[in-house]
Structures are given as structure tokens and as C-alpha cells.
Amino acid sequence: MNTPSTLKVACQQLAPRIGELDYNRELGATAIRQAAARGAQVVVLPELVQSGYLFHDRQEALALSETLDGPTLSLWKALAEELQVVIVGGFCERLEQGQVANSAALVEPEGAVTLYRKAHLWDGENLIFTPGNEPPPVVATRFGPIAVMICYDLEFPEWVRLPALAGAALLCAPVNWPNGPRPAGERPAEMVRVQANAAVNRMFIAACDRCGEERGVDWVGGSTIVDADGYPLAGRERQASAQLLLAELDLGQAWHKSISEHNHVHLDRRPALY
Amino acid sequence: MNTPSTLKVACQQLAPRIGELDYNRELGATAIRQAAARGAQVVVLPELVQSGYLFHDRQEALALSETLDGPTLSLWKALAEELQVVIVGGFCERLEQGQVANSAALVEPEGAVTLYRKAHLWDGENLIFTPGNEPPPVVATRFGPIAVMICYDLEFPEWVRLPALAGAALLCAPVNWPNGPRPAGERPAEMVRVQANAAVNRMFIAACDRCGEERGVDWVGGSTIVDADGYPLAGRERQASAQLLLAELDLGQAWHKSISEHNHVHLDRRPALY
């Protein structure tokens, strides 16, 4: 392994518009260029940023879906190569036989595209998407090993463990967190769970939320970039509007799983008992 | 199942003194009486409140250890019966052949005592204690099903899942959280992890920390009582000194694991993939 290095990651919290594919593609491209211009090496976009989120039904989702050679992923591939960045973003993926998946792509500057299909579906997604059955990938990018999962997946610590145990230093998570009530002054529980997931694995997590009311739903706007100790480096508070979060990660922190002379967050697990 | 009811739980954050068994016993008894007088039905005390924490070695721990019929557990049994409360507290348990465990007892007003032995040992504890090999118990108390684990156990979400899946509505966790650096304005990661553990299981958690410098170590003072949504009902901020936290729990929240029309925090797990 090379000497641990730093990595500059960006979350681009955006407001895609449901069904406006051209608008969303342009919105994403502008955001990627902006983040790269600020020095980002990894740019994370929201879940389903290509299509919008609140489909009426599977037919609408299918009509808005893309395959791997569709215009959005083709554009992300071109931008990743041009800007020499890794792009992680969510899109509505067209599968065979009229099925669709809530997917995310990790696009590398060298041209490789790694897909992840959301395995834990939220609410009405169960009526629309085919769930993924594969664990979150860990991709050995030029910037370090990066994993991908999507939104509600983060509520299953068992799921987050898998890429952490497989060596991910950074988990990129496109999310769309619907907003809800919470006690005054409290950081949203969605962000709190990201913190805990990071801390118990000593793994960086960049969660990129969306904003912009859509079909009666608004969003937490809780994009956050959390360090290996579980504290936010950027995105300490929710913000209802668009925002660009940037943080420089000292990836060496994620290689060091020892948290005391006699403790290691992964080797201390007792899987025979779980 | 009976109609869901409310339960009043207390955390008594105290400053035991290492090796001062009589002092600690009296400190605990006073705290239990005080909490009961405030209406608590379940009283949680810190980890190793009977003995103190920072033993020099196993010999010192052994000399300060007790068995189930020792003076501390005998007193807790008498107080549980007299005050008609459940008591959960940590003690240094004498095992056979000169071994000791970092244990917690759940003492019911009817006289039953349920033991738990810490399964994930922190730092120097590895040189002193024999780890437990049994999952956290879930005890059907008169106030509802209550589970017990200890401190570093909470950093393993797989471990917290076990009593949650077994039906616990409230997890009581005696802890001794050594204090450390954290970013200004941030809630300690120890408390954040409790929040996340509660939210992903829709289970109440009462974590009772200690205070009072001991052999050069001070403590987070992070006692907190968290609801099934993952937000603190009491103990929003750390407090370095002794404190009594009280919260009334609507246990019905913990019976309802559904978080949307199509989601259930436990049934949505995909254990075949983990």
C-alpha cells in the first residue's frame, strides 16, 4: 500500500426536477465542474439525481430510466475523464423486462463504471424498484478504496460493515432523505446515523442529500462529510437549499482501526456470537 | 401483550471511588432511593459502580470483586423489593479460579437477579477480565422487556441488534466512558452511537455514565436517555459532574417498528446478505 494520502471530497446537494432529464443532466454537470474547480477529486451527487425521486408508478420510472450507455452516464464518463475526478451519483437504471433499479454509479477517470443497486428500499420504492442483491462495491480508485451505497441502506449497520471490512476508506452515499419532525435543536437522526456508522468502522462517509420540494415532499438537506471518529468535517447542520460541501480527508485515519492499546474496531468484533 | 404503557427510567451518574467498597455501596443506595423518590421505576447506575474502574491489575480487581450473594447485590435486592423498582448496575464479579468479570446485574422487585458479563472489553480490561460469551439478556420485568449491556458493547451494532430482535423495549447500559478530545460544539461520539443504536432498532436506550476523576482519567459524563426515534429525552449534553436523569418512556413507540407504510426496521433487514 502506498503512503496514506489526503483526498478532497465534495458533496453537491442539488434540487433535481422530476422528469426533467435534460435539466437534471445539466444541473449535475455544472455541479461536477464546480466541485472539480474547487479541487475536489471525488464528487458525490444525490440519489436519483438523474431523474428525480417521487415517481407515480413503475411506468413513470421506466420512462425516465437509463441504461449504462445512456446520456447521463455517458456524460459522467466524459466529465470524469476530462476533469480527472471520481463521480458518484444516483440514477434510475433500466433493467431487463421492464424492471428498474434505484442505482448509483461510481465513475472513474480511467473510464471504469461500477454499479450499485439499492438493496434496502424505502416506502413506495418497494412498488417500483427491483432491489439489489449484491453487497456495496469497494472500488480501488486512484484516490483510495471507495464504497457506495444508497440512503436507507445506511440504516442497516450490518450493511455498512461489509464494505468497511472489505477495506473501504471512504463510503459515498447518494441519499434523498424526506424531511420529518424532530426535536428543536437536534441534528437530524439521518445525519447522526452516518456519524455512528463512520465511528464504529473508522471509515469516512460522504452522504449527499438533495433539496427542493418535489410533489409535496421536502428534504432534510442533511448532506454531511464525516471523519473516521464520527464527527462532521463539513455539513454540521442541515441546510434546506443547495450547497457544496468540501472536505479534505486524511485517509490514514481510516487505515488505523486501533482505538486503544488493546482495541481494534474490526478485530474486536465477535462474529461467532452475532 | 398488555396495552403499551409508560415507564419512568432514571440514570444516576455518580462518582464511585476505586477500592472504597463501603462508600460506593452507600453512594449507590442513596442514589437508588433518590431516583425512586422521584418516581423512577427503573434505576440505572454506572459500570463498575460497586468497585471503581481503573484497577492496577487482576489481583486488585479480584480483591474488590463480589459474588452474587455479596454485600452490594444483597443490598440492591433489598432495595428493589423495598422500593419496588428494577435496578441495573455494574459490579466486579468474582468468578471461579481467581477470574473476574465486568458484569452488570438487573435486579427485579420480586427478587430475581439477571447477570450480564461484558463481551467486548475495553483496553486494559483485556488484561483483567474474562469476557462474557452470552448475548445480552432480555428480562420480562413487570415494567416491560429490558435488556442489559455494558459500555464498549454499544460500539458493536450487531450486539445491540440481538436484544432488539429478541423484543427488548428498553436497553439499559451501565458505562464508564473515558473522556477524550472532540471538536468544539459536538455531542460526544459515545452519545451519538447510542442515538443511532436506538433509532435503527426503535428501542429506548438508557446509558448511565460515571463522573469523578480516577487515577488520572476523567469521563465523558455522557449519560443519556434516548427515545425510539434516536433523540435524547434527557441528557442532551454531557455534564462532568453527578446528575440524575429522568425520563418517562412511552413503550408503545418501541412496539411499532414500522417507519413508513412499507418499512419495518427489523423486517427490512436482509440477513441472507450480511
Architecture blueprint of SSEs:
Two copies of one chain form a homodimer.
Chain A: E1 6-13, H1 21-37, E2 42-44, H2 58-64, H3 71-83, E3 86-94, E4 100-107, E5 113-117, E6 138-141, E7 144-148, H4 157-165, E8 170-174, H5 189-201, E9 204-208, E10 224-226, E11 232-234, E12 243-250, H6 252-255, E13 258-260, E14 263-264
Parallel strand pairs in A: 1-2, 2-3, 7-8, 8-9
Antiparallel strand pairs in A: 1-12, 3-4, 4-5, 6-7, 9-10, 10-11, 13-14
Helix pairs in contact in A: 1-3
Pfam family, one (chains A, B): CN_hydrolase
Keywords (chains A, B): Hydrolase
Family (chains A, B): Belongs to the carbon-nitrogen hydrolase superfamily. NIT1/NIT2 family.
Would you kindly provide a written description of the structure presented here, covering whatever features stand out?
The structure is a homodimer. Chain A has about 270 residues and is α/β, with parallel strands linked by helices. Chain A has a single domain, classed as Nitrilase/N-carbamoyl-D-aminoacid amidohydrolase (4-Layer Sandwich). In chain A, about 25% of the residues lie in helices and about 25% in strands. Chain A is built from six helices and 14 strands. In chain A, strands 5-4-3-2-1-12 form a six-stranded mixed beta sheet. In chain A, a hairpin with a 2-residue loop joins strand 6 and strand 7 (about 145-150). In chain A, helix 1 packs parallel to helix 3. Chain A starts with 5 loop residues before the first strand and ends in a 10-residue tail after the last strand. Chains A and B meet through helix 4 and helix 5 of A and helix 4 and helix 5 of B.
